Amino acid sequence: MQSLLIHAALGVLTVIVFFYANRHLYRGDWAGSDSTFLEKLYYALAVISVIIGWYFNQKYVFMYPSEASWWHFTVQLFDTPAGGSVAQDVIITNAILFPLWTILDGPRRGMRWAWIYFVMSLVTSFGFAMGLYLAAQERQLRWNARPQQ
After folding, report:
1. Domains in the chain: how many in total?
2. Residue 84 and residue 96: Cα distance in Å, rounded?
3. Closest by alpha carbon to 1, among 60, 80, 85, 48?
4. Gap between the Cα atoms of 57 and 145, Å rounded
5. What is the domain range of residue 92?
6. CA distance linking residue 142 with residue 30, whole number of Å
7. How many CA atoms lie within 13 A of 87 on its CB side?
8. Which of 12, 28, 48, 111 has the fewest CB atoms within 10 Å, measured from its CB?
9. Nearest to 73 by CA among 52, 53, 93
10. Are 102 and 134 in contact (CB under 8 A)?
11. pLDDT of residue 3
12. DSSP states of 2-47
């Protein structure tokens, strides 16, 4: 149970850092600051991902109270060939490709503190962090295209 609370606290902290780093994008005083349908969809999918992930994570922690750990959790992902296939895909994508993508592409687009998405993915869910990245990227594109005053 303690690990769930720690992950939840760290997850909230990463979301606070995300909004702090992107506060200029979330002010309503610039042309294009209204959320688009696509941006809202990214937020909705991010929230759905973290809720479903939280449900299964709490089931795991209560099912294996003395064994619960990152190592034990990861080993269990490979208990079946189908699970192993999905697990290797998600691990490589989340641990290598996602940080490369966000940390390299984010600054190219003008996104600040792009490392936060990878950290967030470790304590919330990959889908949540990716959804926030894509939503922030949508806002950043509109920010970059706004008329300069």
Report:
1. 1
2. 17
3. 60
4. 40
5. 2-145
6. 10
7. 12
8. 28
9. 53
10. no
11. 83
12. HHHHHHHHHHHHHHHHHHHHTGGGG-SSSTT-SPPHHHHHHHHHHH
At residue 1, the pLDDT reads 75
Please state, in angstroms and rounded to a whole number, the distance separating the CA atoms of residues 144 and 136.
12
- At residue 149, the pLDDT reads 63
Mean pLDDT per block of 10 residues along the chain (149 residues) reads: 88 96 93 94 98 94 92 94 96 96 95 96 96 97 87
Are the C-beta atoms of residues 114 and 106 closer than 8 Å to each other? yes
CA atoms of 82 and 40, how far apart (whole Å)? 32
Q: How much is the pLDDT for 142? A: 95
Beta carbons within 8 Å of 46's beta carbon, 6+ residues apart: 127, 128, 129, 130, 131, 132, 135
Q: Are 57 and 4 in contact (CB under 8 A)?
A: yes
